[in-house]
Design goal:
Helix content: 40-55%
Largest sheet: none
Oligomer: single chain
Number of domains: 1
Number of strands: 0
Strand content: under 5%
Radius of gyration: 11 Å
C-alpha cells in the first residue's frame, strides 16, 4: 500500500500530505529522525516527548503559524 493511500494516517500525516511536504524533508528541517517522523505520521496514538514536540511544532509554525499541537496530538 502506498503511504498516501494509508487510511490509518494520523492528523499530522494527513496535514503533511495536504501541504505536499515529504516526511524526509520535514525530518531534515525539524532535526527529528525520519523514523520518529514516520511514527508521528502513521501511529495515531503516538505522543512525542516534549523535546520532539517542540522541534516538530517550531517547524510546523514556520509553515503555518495558525497550527497548534492540539491540532495534531491528543495532549
Amino acid at each position: 500500500m502506498f503511504w498516501w493511500k494509508n487510511p490509518k494516517r494520523s492528523k499530522f500525516g494527513k496535514w503533511l500530505d495536504k501541504n505536499g511536504i515529504q516526511q524526509t524533508d520535514f525530518a531534515m528541517k525539524s532535526s527529528v529522525s525520519r523514523r520518529t517522523i514516520w511514527t508521528i505520521c502513521n501511529d495515531k496514538n503516538y505522543i512525542p516527548s516534549a523535546a520532539i514536540l517542540k522541534k516538530v511544532m517550531d517547524t510546523v509554525k514556520g509553515i503555518d503559524s495558525s497550527k497548534q499541537s492540539k491540532d495534531f496530538f491528543d495532549i
